[in-house]
């Protein structure tokens, strides 16, 4: 994790206050200096600059434009910003509104009103570049400072994407222009200048700078082991085939499954293909290449860096391949995965030869894939052309060139569309490899899928998970044959009656639903925190109702009726230790996995500090009573966070007992829980009836009376809906057994009665009746002894004497003590008797586990 | 019951329905046998009817006696499921990680796609005592929600198992209980006896098999054999004890004595029924027997109150002085030694643990023999002096 480990940063104002407001006691500044103690570098950020702001997740800092800087009366430094949002910050469901694929470097001009634009100046990390582009424009290749440069094409107002208004567009551009000037003059934080310590430090703030390098190294080493050679070929083949066809058809191509499935072609074939498309690309080249070279050069700033950029892009392309190989593999089922690997191994030797032979050729074609124009022109055209262009650049200055490209790139759409695609590829792998690296949890496999932009998702339907034991995917092997669909009415009914079947609505809980909904909704709208305690006996729909509420709220949030929120759920039963709750919550929120104590610290920090763009969190704590510890610190913390000002945390605590807060909680915990209570009453028989009939809607499987019988019976006992459904399910089974002819049968009273009897019958009487003769005599002897002594406890010795007497009366051979002891322990194992530890032998005390009347009743019958 | 269970499992595998059930029955009532039988049938059924479905059922057989806590059980499940965090039969990671991992694994599946899993929890009652019943809660919770189809089957002999479940665990259990009872009567018992003894048709020596089977048929009609069996049947309906008895009897069969006789069975039954403590008494010396008799009298006089060595010694002295002519008057240390031997044989048992402070002579003891056992043992004791016998019969006879 790259927290800001390396240095303490000192923030100081740049220049003198430009204006000050006496009344508000604020003074405004035009810039801020960030001084790093360790590297002794200074960075100046001025108004209008684009900055990165610390976010919830250290890897994903927020992007913003600095609008205003001021110091308030209490000497706190503040900044007013205009937010930009990344794609990841846009709700998943809205992303599809975009209808196009977005690279990781693209941000959106944020017009959502809910966010706080006033932030503490200390959260500013560094300055970056944000380039405005027209919608149709493609992203220019910037290989050098990927983390530092963002593009903005559209704005986002929480509901839909809009094209940037000309006003904002020009404003943004102006800001860039200004920045360009500053860049030229001060040079301290020019992104292109890789060598200055400032920049290094900056990079390490966002993402430890060595990481990409590491990846490159790794990839290269991978290359040397020729395992990835196949993937390389595959990749190149794929891109190559993209090149052959017209660029306008690229979207289709991306999803082109044949090319992918053909990936298992033999190496030589691939190489042939490569040769082919080298030729195919060649004619395309001259038209587009010129401008492209200019573009790259301009961004790189100086000619000697061309090879460097090529190298870099190459390596990133390799990363891309790496990633793609992953995705390809992951896509396959586990079985074929193994096969694939073995196949690869087999092919290895054969390929090695081919590779070494045509290695150079392939490399060139590879670099052609990513930076086709520059490379080609380098080779084909003269270097003089480049020199000319560079001189042109120098004379014009950066600004002019940039505008030139901006205006020109519209016309060169067709060529740059290809470019974009290539540009995307290097973007994704970094994220990919990073995410799969950092999270070694089962969740990790889900996380990247959420965070990666839509484009990556298309390319890599399943996230990559390295096959190391720590990062194992928790997955049960798939079944080979599909599950059968229910055939008969009864089977269908049974499926619907299963507890796991999720009903469309929750009947009989409308009131509770509404209450909880209102509670959460109001808190969400206010942006405050709060607690609610929900109690009720098992099987009364507590968890189901709360989930339903969350579902509805999420729906509402999608439709923009509510501010968006995060939803976290923990279950006390599913934790091994109450303190694990912290770990799980943190993992849900940020995806980090740390120890319990550390997680507690992080969470406390998260909820107590004001986060500018943090969403409200809704936390469901199921089985609350299990989070009880002796010091109760887990509960205390949980309920303390919502009371803090900036927490934006709503807690819904669920437990069985109504008086839990009073019974087990300390006063300070109970008082923080608050008085918002709700208790779920057990279902009445009418409600149970309604539940069953709503589930069985459209399936004629039950008699009306049968349903009523079940619901009355269950309501009288516990009001547990689960029990009710189980009985009904069992009744359908009995009905199916009983059915002889193939006529459609519905569940009748008799079946239901049988099911109920089966579930509620006391097993003891039956067990006694089926016991052996001496076991029964022994029970009789116990009864006799009890009656004699008047105490409900006897030693075996006493019972034994009675037993012998009874045997004599019945004319049976009296058993030996050993046999009696055996009988006694058998009855004890069934828990008909309660026994002491058996080492006391004859003095072992015996007690009945059921009432004497039951025993009498069971014994008398025969 | 068989059909019920078979149907249950079939639905899990074919329809992907989740279920939970308990099989309850006394020891030796064939719970495990039933389950194994059903599983075998199920496998056959698949192979016959649906060749396509590669039977992909995992069968974690967890025994409560081996998996003493949730942590071990969890590791065992993971190992048996061969999930990806298993490296060479070993499972790494902390308890919390493992639990989260397993739950995640099970959560990701859904009804139609993942292959059903059968959890068999042997000695289910021992799982109940695990902390918070976490494992049971989670297993039942999965079986009640739309996740990977699982069937949880518990085997136990405790009739009161449901009362041991916590209420939220109980609510999640589907309350499907299959009770197994030995509900057959004596006629069926005889049939079982015959079936157990008969040689199968594929026995190589056909003529001998015929002879043997005839003999078994005769045996089953024999009066003495029926008596023996009846006796055993009255004591226990457990089939395992029948097997034990037959094993004892069959071990008498040799080349020269090829057929089982009624006498063999009777002998076996006698061995089977003998009282262990009375057996020990047989091997005691006369002095030790005298001490036991003294204790018996003390028990009679004080109605089962505990006694100490000094009381026993006094009683013995009385007998020696007044009555005994054949007994040598042993010294006290010798008697003490004999008494300690009895202690070691656990024929007497101290009430509390012997401590250093209390003198051994005054340690309170209890006799672990019933008077009838003592009398029986004396009857068969070889060369018992007659005055000892008389003394045993009545403590007051010398008056």
TrEMBL record, chain A:
CDD domains: AAA, Cdc6_C. InterPro entries: AAA+_ATPase, AAA_lid_10, ATPase_AAA_core, BAH_dom, BAH_sf, Cdc6_C, ORC1/CDC6, P-loop_NTPase. Residues 406-416 have a biased composition (Low complexity). Residues 43-167 form the BAH domain. GO terms for molecular function: ATP binding; ATP hydrolysis activity; chromatin binding; DNA replication origin binding; metal ion binding. One of its GO terms (biological process) is DNA replication initiation. The keyword Transcription regulation does not apply. It is found in: Nucleus. GO terms for cellular component: nuclear origin of replication recognition complex. Keywords: ATP-binding, DNA replication, DNA-binding, Magnesium, Metal-binding, Nucleotide-binding, Nucleus, Phosphoprotein. Residues 215-249, 403-478 are annotated as: Disordered. Pfam families: AAA (PF00004), AAA_lid_10 (PF17872), BAH (PF01426), WHD_Cdc6 (PF09079). It comes from the Eukaryota. Component of ORC, a complex composed of at least 6 subunits: ORC1, ORC2, ORC3, ORC4, ORC5 and ORC6. ORC is regulated in a cell-cycle dependent manner. It is sequentially assembled at the exit from anaphase of mitosis and disassembled as cells enter S phase. Interacts with CDC6 and KAT7/HBO1. Interacts with LRWD1 predominantly during the G1 phase and with less affinity during mitosis, when phosphorylated. ORC is composed of six subunits. Component of the origin recognition complex (ORC) that binds origins of replication. DNA-binding is ATP-dependent, however specific DNA sequences that define origins of replication have not been identified so far. ORC is required to assemble the pre-replication complex necessary to initiate DNA replication. Belongs to the ORC1 family. This is Origin recognition complex subunit 1. The lineage of its organism: Eukaryota, Metazoa, Chordata, Craniata, Vertebrata. The gene is Orc1.
From TrEMBL, chain B:
GO terms for molecular function: ATP binding; DNA replication origin binding. GO terms for cellular component: cytoplasm; nuclear origin of replication recognition complex. Residues 17-182 form the AAA+ ATPase domain. SUPFAM superfamilies: P-loop containing nucleoside triphosphate hydrolases. It comes from the Eukaryota. Keywords: ATP-binding, DNA replication, DNA-binding, Nucleotide-binding, Nucleus. It holds the Pfam family AAA_16. One of its GO terms (biological process) is DNA replication initiation. The keyword Nucleotide-binding applies. It is found in: Nucleus. Component of ORC, a complex composed of at least 6 subunits: ORC1, ORC2, ORC3, ORC4, ORC5 and ORC6. ORC is regulated in a cell-cycle dependent manner. It is sequentially assembled at the exit from anaphase of mitosis and disassembled as cells enter S phase. Interacts with DBF4. Interacts with POLQ. Belongs to the ORC4 family. This is Origin recognition complex subunit 4.
């Amino acid at each position: 994790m790259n927290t800001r480990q390396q240095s303490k940063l000192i923030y100081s104002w740049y220049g003198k206050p430009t204006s000050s407001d006496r009344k508000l006691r604020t003074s405004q500044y035009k810039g801020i200096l960030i001084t790093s103690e360790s590297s002794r570098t200074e960075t100046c950020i001025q108004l209008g600059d684009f900055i990165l702001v610390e976010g919830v997740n250290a890897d994903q800092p927020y992007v913003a434009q600095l609008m205003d800087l001021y110091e308030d009366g209490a000497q706190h430094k503040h900044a007013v910003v205009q937010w930009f949002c990344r794609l990841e910050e846009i709700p998943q469901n809205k992303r599809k509104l975009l209808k196009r694929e977005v690279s990781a470097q693209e941000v959106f001009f944020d017009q959502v009103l809910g966010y706080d634009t006033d932030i503490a100046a200390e959260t500013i990390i560094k300055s970056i570049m944000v380039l405005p582009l027209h919608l149709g424009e493609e992203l220019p290749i910037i290989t050098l400072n990927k983390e530092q440069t963002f593009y903005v094409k559209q704005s986002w107002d929480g509901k839909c994407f809009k094209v940037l208004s000309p006003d904002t567009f020009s404003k943004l551009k102006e800001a860039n222009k200004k920045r360009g000037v500053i860049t030229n003059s001060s040079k301290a934080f020019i992104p292109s200048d890789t060598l200055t310590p400032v920049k290094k430090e900056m990079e390490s703030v966002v993402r430890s700078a060595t990481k990409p390098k590491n990846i490159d190294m790794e990839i290269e080493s991978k290359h040397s082991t020729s395992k990835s050679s196949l993937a390389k070929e595959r990749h190149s083949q794929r891109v190559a085939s993209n090149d052959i066809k017209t660029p306008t058809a690229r979207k289709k191509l991306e999803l082109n499954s044949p090319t992918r499935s053909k990936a298992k072609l033999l190496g030589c074939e691939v190489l042939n293909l490569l040769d082919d498309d080298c030729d195919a690309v060649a004619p395309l080249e001259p038209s587009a290449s010129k401008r492209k070279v200019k573009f790259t050069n301009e961004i790189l700033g100086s000619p000697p860096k061309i090879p460097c950029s090529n190298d870099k892009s190459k390596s990133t392309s390799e990363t891309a391949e790496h990633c793609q190989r992953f995705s390809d593999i992951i896509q396959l089922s586990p079985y074929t995965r193994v096969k694939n690997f073995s196949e690869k191994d087999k092919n290895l030797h054969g390929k090695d030869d081919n590779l070494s032979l045509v290695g150079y050729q392939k490399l060139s074609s590879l670099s052609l894939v990513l930076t086709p124009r520059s490379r080609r022109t380098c080779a084909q055209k003269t270097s003089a052309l480049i020199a000319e262009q560079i001189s042109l650049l120098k004379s014009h200055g950066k600004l002019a060139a940039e505008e030139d490209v901006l205006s020109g790139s519209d016309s060169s759409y067709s060529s740059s569309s290809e470019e974009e695609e290539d540009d995307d590829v290097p973007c994704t792998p970094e994220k990919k490899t990073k995410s799969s690296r950092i999270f070694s949890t089962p969740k990790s496999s889900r996380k990247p899928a959420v965070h990666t932009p839509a484009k990556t998702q298309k390319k890599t339907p399943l996230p990559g998970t390295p096959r190391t034991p720590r990062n194992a995917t928790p997955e049960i092997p798939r079944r080979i044959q599909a599950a059968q669909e229910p055939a008969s009415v009864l089977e269908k009914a049974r499926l619907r009656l299963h507890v796991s079947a999720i009903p469309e609505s929750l009947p009989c809980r409308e009131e509770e639903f509404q209450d909880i909904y209102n509670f959460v909704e109001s808190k969400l709208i206010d942006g405050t925190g709060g607690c609610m305690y929900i109690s009720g006996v098992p099987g009364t729909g507590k968890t189901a109702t709360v989930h339903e509420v969350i579902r509805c709220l999420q729906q509402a949030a999608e439709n923009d009726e509510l501010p968006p929120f995060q939803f976290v759920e923990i279950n006390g039963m599913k934790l091994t230790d109450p303190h694990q709750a912290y770990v799980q919550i943190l993992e849900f929120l940020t995806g980090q996995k740390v120890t319990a104590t550390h997680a507690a610290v992080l969470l406390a920090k998260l909820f107590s500090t004001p986060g500018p763009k943090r969403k409200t969190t809704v936390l469901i704590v199921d089985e609350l009573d299990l989070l009880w510890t002796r010091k109760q610190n887990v509960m205390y913390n949980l309920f303390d966070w919502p009371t803090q000002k900036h927490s934006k945390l709503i807690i819904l605590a669920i437990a069985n007992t109504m008086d839990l807060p009073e019974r087990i909680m300390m006063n300070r915990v109970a008082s923080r829980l608050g008085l918002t209570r709700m208790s779920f009453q057990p279902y009445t028989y009418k409600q149970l009836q309604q539940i069953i009939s709503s589930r069985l809607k459209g399936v004629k499987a039950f008699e009306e009376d049968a349903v009523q019988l079940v619901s009355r019976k269950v309501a009288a006992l516990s009001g547990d809906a689960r029990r009710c459904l189980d009985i009904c399910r069992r009744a359908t089974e009995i009905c199916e057994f009983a059915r002889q002819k193939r006529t459609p049968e519905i569940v009748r009273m008799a079946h239901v009665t049988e099911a109920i009897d089966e579930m509620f019958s006391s097993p003891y009487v039956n067990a006694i009746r089926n016991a052996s003769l001496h076991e029964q005599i022994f029970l009789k002897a116990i009864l006799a002894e009890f009656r004699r002594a008047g105490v409900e406890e006897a030693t075996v010795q006493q019972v034994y004497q009675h037993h012998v007497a009874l045997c004599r009366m019945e004319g049976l051979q009296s058993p030996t003590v050993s046999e009696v002891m055996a009988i006694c322990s058998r009855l004890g194992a069934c828990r008909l008797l309660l026994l002491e530890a058996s080492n006391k032998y004859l003095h072992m005390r015996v007690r009945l586990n059921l009432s004497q009347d039951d025993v009498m009743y069971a014994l008398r019958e025969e | 019951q068989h059909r019920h269970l078979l149907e249950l499992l079939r639905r899990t595998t074919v329809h992907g329905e989740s279920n939970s059930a308990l099989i309850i029955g006394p020891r030796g009532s064939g719970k495990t046998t039933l389950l194994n039988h059903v599983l075998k049938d199920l496998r056959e059924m698949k192979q016959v009817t649906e060749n396509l479905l590669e039977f992909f059922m995992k069968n974690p057989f967890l025994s409560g006696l081996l998996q003493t806590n949730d942590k071990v059980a969890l590791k065992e499940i993971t190992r048996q499921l061969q999930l990806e965090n298993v490296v060479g039969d070993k499972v790494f990671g902390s308890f919390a990680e493992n639990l989260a991992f397993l739950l995640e694994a099970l959560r990701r599946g859904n009804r139609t796609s993942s292959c059903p899993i059968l959890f068999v929890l042997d000695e289910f009652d021992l799982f109940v005592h695990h902390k918070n019943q976490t494992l049971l809660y989670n297993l039942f919770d999965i079986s009640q929600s739309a996740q990977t189809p699982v069937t949880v089957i518990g085997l136990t002999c405790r009739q009161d198992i449901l009362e041991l479940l916590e209420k939220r665990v109980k609510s999640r259990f589907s309350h499907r209980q299959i009770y197994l009872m030995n509900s057959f009567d004596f006629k069926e018992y005889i049939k079982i006896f015959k079936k157990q003894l008969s040689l199968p048709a594929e026995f190589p020596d056909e003529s001998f098999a015929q002879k043997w089977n005839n003999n078994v048929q005769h045996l089953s009609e024999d009066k003495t054999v029926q008596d023996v069996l009846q006796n055993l049947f009255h004591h226990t309906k457990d089939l395992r004890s029948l097997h034990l008895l037959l094993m004892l009897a069959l071990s008498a069969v040799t080349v020269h004595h090829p057929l089982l006789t009624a006498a063999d069975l009777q002998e076996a039954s006698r061995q089977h029924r003998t009282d262990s403590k009375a057996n020990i008494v047989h091997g005691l010396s006369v002095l030790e027997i005298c001490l036991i008799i003294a204790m018996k009298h003390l028990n009679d006089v004080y109605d089962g109150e505990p006694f100490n060595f000094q009381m026993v010694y006094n009683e013995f002295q009385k007998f020696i002085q007044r009555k005994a002519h054949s007994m040598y008057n042993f010294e006290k240390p010798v008697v003490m030694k004999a008494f300690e031997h009895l202690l070691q044989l656990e024929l007497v048992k101290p009430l509390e643990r012997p401590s250093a402070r209390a003198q051994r002579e005054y340690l309170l003891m209890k006799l672990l023999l019933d008077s009838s056992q003592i009398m029986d043992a004396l009857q068969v004791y070889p060369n018992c002096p007659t005055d000892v016998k008389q003394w045993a019969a009545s403590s007051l006879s010398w008056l």
